[in-house]
Amino acid sequence: MTQDPNGDPAAPAAELGGRAFAALFRALKVVRPDRPIHPHGIRLVGELTRSGFNGAASGLDWLDSSGVDPVEARFSRSAGLPPSVPDILGLALRIGSPEKAADALFASTGWRFPARFMLLPKLNVEAATLTTLMPYRGRKGPVLLGLRTQQGRPAGDWVLGLYFAAPAGHWIKAGELRLRPAPEPADTAMRFNPLQHPLPDTGTYPWTRRLRERSYRAAQRPAGAAAHSAPNERKPMSTVTKLFNSPAADIWKVMADGWLYSGWVVGASRIRAVDAQWPEAGSWLHHSVGAWPLVINDSTRVTDVDPGRSLELVARGWPMGEAKVVIRLEDRGTQCLVSIAEDAVRGPGKMVPKVLRDALIGVRNRESLNRLELMAAGGAGR
To answer: Hey, where are the domains in the chain?
Structure first.
């Protein structure tokens, strides 16, 4: 294990723990391919009211300012045990407008120190206390967030108090969360990730990222993606690279707009629908392949994303099959090195000899990069 360049003494343990959790989630996905933990949930909507600075600032600017944020939420039981059996309870929040959404994850723990850092199975959420377990990095040091029920329950109108505390400090009330069951569907396909969607003006400690990042990626990887891509991880994918005279931010704006894909992805003739969450992991883009009138409707899903840096897709184009595509951006200020790596992972396309397959993919993706460069330079997606 390499030494942490910043000299963080917690780095080796966090790295080891992160790898262990990721391995556990990959094993659980064999039994539960979609959601290895928190398999079933209740979709909720509501509002979070922040009371603002009341004599005790948390050091998180967002929390210390007053305001009301729209919230989408999911309440679930970690192991998926029957309601009559205690389980670790979880409440995932997506806070704010879709353009500036932030995620926060809470789990049932103790309320006092040190139990607030221990996951505790609970039977009823009304008597449970929920914390973020991992601290945020505020201006005044580490900050935990906590929730506890004031009235109601997830099946109806549910009101929770929002609190903050230093790791061993007293809890201070900072607002109120009001939730209610959402219209159909009863559950949500939304995936919550506080590392990809952090709370405004908050930071994370490197050791918390090491501990959580791999496990989030393993748990949220769409069902089947790992199986499809694993054989090709041992063989180089067909890769083409080009240096763009545009910054990475301008290129990402084009990639983040699913409706623009038919403009630069060679073979996609039209876009029929784009998930509102695109390009989050698990989101879908529905397109057509071919020239009219010989067009075939199919779809592409996101299997992994690092906003502004990389996008991993499984693109379907039957009858040829499915392909894994990885697009990476290396920011160089006013320029950006862009690469597309691709290979077939399923279907008749995988039967084509690799040397011929790579050549065909390379020609097509070089043209895709040419189109993407022109669209980024022209301001598409802004």
So the answer is: 11-220, 225-377
* Three-class HEC string of the chain: CCCCCCCCCCHHHHHHHHHHHHHHHHHHHHHCCCCCCCCCEEEEEEEEEECCCCCCCCCCHHHHCCEEEEEEEEEEECCCCCCCCCECEEEEEEECCHHHCEEEEEEEECCCCCHHHCECCECCHHHCEEECCCCEEECCEEEEEEEEEEEECCCCCEEEEEEEECCCCCCEEEEEEEEEECCCCCCCCCCCCCCCCCCCCCECCHHHHHHHHHHHHHHHCCCCHHHHHHHHHCCCCEEEEEEECCCHHHHHHHHCCHHHHHHHCCCEEEEEEECCCCCCCCCEEEEEECCCCCCEEEEEEEEEEECCCEEEEEEECCCCCEEEEEEEEEEECCEEEEEEEEEEEECHHHHCCHHHHHHHHHHHHHHHHHHHHHHHHCCCCC
| 318 pLDDT more than 60 | no
In this prediction the pTM is 0.58
11-220 and 225-377 share one fold: no
Q: What CATH fold (topology level) applies to the domain 225-377? A: Alpha-D-Glucose-1,6-Bisphosphate; Chain A, domain 4 (3.30.530)
State pLDDT tens for residues 184-226: 778 888 889 888 888 887 888 888 878 887 777 777 766 554 4
Candidate CATH numbers 2.40.180.10, 3.40.710.10, 3.30.360.10, 3.30.70.100; the one for domain 11-220: 2.40.180.10
Closest CA to 332 of 241, 240, 253, 249: 249
